[in-house]
Amino acid sequence: MKRIQRIIGVILVLLPLLIKAELKEIPFTLDDRDRIIRTEQKVESVKTEMTTRFQAVDQRFEAMDKRFDQLFNFLWAIVGIFTAMMISVFGFAFWDRKLSLAPLKKEDQRIVAVLVDFAKTQPKLSEILKNAGLL
What are 73-97's pLDDT values in tens digits? Predict the structure, then answer.
């Protein structure tokens, strides 16, 4: 029994030392605080650098959007010019054809009138004009 009492006594004496060992705090030094401050500064500098780079990329995208808009406006202008040219060419062609054929129609009508007058004296010509549908 004395032996058990000695073991319990030793344990009771060493117990506060064991508890102190578990509760021992790690000291927070000024160097640790300085390291944390430097780390925070580095993180902030990386954040600012990233934001500036993102802003630069955004500006580049905006510039590209403006250039695409200018390109599309230029292409629409080219399409408009081409369309106007084609309409004017076709319009001129129809107008010119109508204008150039008008004197020929008048001349054709005069020739037919002369042939009809001549067909009154020539029976063979009168028959030919009847077959052609001009009399």
Answer: 999 999 999 999 999 999 999 888 8
